[in-house]
């Protein structure tokens, strides 16, 4: 755990100091309490609780995840630290009311923490009927918030009051009253939250959601039926959805995604149970977009009045991009001609009129970042982005280079002469299915300072693109998007295929500097990053960009596709009504 904490904090001196205070205060508080040093005990407890409160900020999120994995989360830390005060007051027979009140308050705090965590778990279970952005406060999700997390400053204040009160018998009553009052206020707040959780359960939540939907009348829906950790599939579309002319709604099924979806102005609802979709009011909806293929999509695919389209969550040559399941949709929206050709190459027959070329509207964000970035200095130290994909759903190990040669790639980059700067950007799902991938991910992270790691959900991928002079990756959607930058890129071939066959199966890598499992080809890629004269694939990359990305650089093709799909749906519904 110590090495993980050190790696997470890096050179963050305030973070190191606060973490040290947070951890050291526990044994120190108990020790000073045992010998009766009241003032010092109160000071240590208050300082430790302040450190707990301060490090709840976003920049310390990784630290708390490391501590939680070590079964040393905030609840256990605070329980141990605040136990110092009842221990301290055990010897104060003359302040019996204060001793009793302090012990009761501490035991009450433990009970309240347990109840609060159970409440959070219940809210997670019920979050299938929750909404954000529809103007119904009672339906706002509380998933991920800790009902006891706001208690730390109050606890510290009460404990300090208790310690000071021991020096005066009269003040003892004040201390007892203060503890009782704060405990009562906190219990009242928790009771209100529990009441809210119980009151808005089941059918009442669905009725409230349906009422809000009838008032909002969404025309377009993005439906995400995926598991936890798939929020990125929707996140890539949120800025585009925010800019549409139509009223848009995001619907997802797994409540864990509340903690993954980025803020947006588009309203979001979570409907968890399949039976609830039978009563969900989507009568105003005309078009449903699906960013992923999974069985839960049937919840909306079964409705005949909706026009459906598969939009995916990135353009790539992976087999997932030619899933035969895609035949169930009315339309398939792809970036460019390459997205359409992949189906024919893979032997998945789909009529040509089912395809709509919409470009990659997300790349307007990348265009802005590239325009704002300083001019590339080809004479300085180049920045290399290593962005491997994840292990995938199958047992084949060649999906990600991370397992086979990730450590070797990073070590080779660290040893490169002249030197390079490294950015490591793993896929959000890395290590979720394969223990080998999880181990490889940890091994690479251990090689790098924290400043060289861009974790999904914290740093933007397109920011990494803007900084990089070269990208090393696997067959994935980042290849297609990186083509937009016109910068050199490398793809690692660990498939066992010859380079010729590998390129034939994956057209998006045909303008890449291929690297094999022994890192042959890495030197040529680094040369291309250092000087234009060595970048022999520049023209080929530029030509490939149009084939892969299509009409990219504007939201207009996507908006036009939405308008046309809605018009076709209106025409179909008009014919159905008149028949």
UniProtKB/TrEMBL annotation:
Keyword field contains Membrane: yes
GO MF assignments: CDP-glycerol glycerophosphotransferase activity
GO cellular component, one term: membrane
Keywords, comma-separated and alphabetical: Membrane, Transmembrane, Transmembrane helix
A family per Pfam: Glyphos_transf
Residues that span the membrane, as ranges: 20-47, 87-109, 171-191
Protein name listed in UniProt: CDP-glycerol glycerophosphotransferase
Organism in which the protein naturally occurs: Catellatospora bangladeshensis
């Amino acid at each position: 755990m110590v090495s993980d904490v050190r790696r997470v904090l890096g050179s963050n001196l305030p973070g190191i100091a606060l973490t040290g205070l947070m951890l050291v205060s526990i044994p120190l508080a108990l020790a000073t309490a045992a010998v009766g040093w009241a003032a010092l005990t109160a000071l240590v407890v208050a300082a430790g609780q302040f450190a707990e409160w301060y490090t709840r900020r976003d920049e310390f999120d990784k630290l708390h995840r490391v501590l939680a994995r070590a079964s040393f989360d905030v609840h256990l830390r605070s329980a141990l630290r605040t136990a110092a005060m009842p221990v301290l007051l055990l010897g104060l027979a003359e302040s019996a009311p204060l001793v009793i009140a302090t012990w009761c308050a501490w035991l009450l705090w433990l009970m309240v923490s347990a109840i609060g965590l159970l409440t959070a778990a219940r809210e997670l279970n019920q979050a299938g009927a929750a909404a954000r952005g529809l103007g119904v406060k009672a339906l706002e999700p509380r998933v991920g918030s800790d009902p006891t997390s706001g208690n730390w400053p109050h606890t510290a204040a009460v404990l300090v009051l208790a310690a000071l009160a021991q020096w005066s018998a009269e003040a003892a009553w004040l201390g007892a009253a203060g503890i009782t009052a704060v405990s009562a206020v906190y219990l009242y707040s928790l009771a209100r939250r529990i009441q809210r959780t119980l009151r808005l359960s089941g059918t009442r939540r669905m009725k409230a959601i349906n009422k809000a939907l009838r008032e909002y009348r969404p025309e377009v829906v993005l439906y995400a039926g995926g598991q936890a950790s798939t929020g990125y599939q929707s996140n890539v579309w949120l800025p585009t959805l925010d800019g549409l002319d139509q009223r848009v709604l995001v619907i997802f099924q797994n409540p864990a995604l509340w903690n993954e979806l980025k803020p947006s102005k588009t309203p979001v609802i979570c409907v968890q149970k399949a039976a609830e979709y039978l009563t969900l009011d989507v009568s105003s909806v005309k078009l449903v977009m699906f960013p992923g293929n999974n069985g839960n999509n049937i919840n909306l695919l079964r409705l005949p009045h909706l026009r459906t389209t598969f939009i995916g969550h990135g353009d790539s040559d992976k087999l997932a991009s030619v899933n035969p399941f895609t035949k169930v949709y009315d339309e398939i929206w792809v970036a460019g001609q390459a997205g359409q050709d992949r189906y024919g190459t893979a032997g998945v027959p789909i009529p040509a009129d089912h395809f709509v070329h919409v470009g990659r509207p997300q790349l307007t964000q990348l265009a802005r970042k590239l325009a704002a970035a300083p001019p590339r200095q080809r004479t300085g130290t180049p920045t290399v982005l290593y962005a491997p994909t994840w292990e995938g759903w199958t047992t084949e190990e060649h999906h990600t280079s991370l397992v086979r040669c990730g450590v070797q790639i990073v070590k080779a980059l660290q040893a490169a002469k002249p030197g390079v700067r490294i950015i490591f950007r793993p896929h959000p799902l890395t290590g979720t299915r394969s223990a080998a991938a999880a181990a490889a991910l940890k091994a690479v992270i251990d090689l790098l300072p924290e400043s060289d790691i861009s974790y999904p959900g914290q740093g933007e991928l397109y920011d990494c693109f803007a900084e990089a002079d070269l990208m090393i990756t696997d067959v994935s959607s980042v290849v297609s998007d990186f083509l937009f930058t016109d910068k050199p890129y490398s793809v690692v071939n660990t498939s066992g295929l010859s380079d010729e066959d590998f390129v034939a199966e994956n057209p998006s890598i045909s303008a890449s500097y291929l690297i094999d499992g022994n890192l042959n080809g890495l030197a040529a890629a680094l040369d291309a990053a250092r000087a234009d004269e060595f970048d022999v694939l520049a023209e080929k990359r530029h030509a490939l960009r149009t084939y892969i990305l299509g009409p990219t650089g504007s939201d207009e093709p996507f908006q036009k596709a939405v308008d046309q799909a809605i018009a076709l749906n209106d025409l179909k519904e008009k014919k159905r009504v008149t028949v």
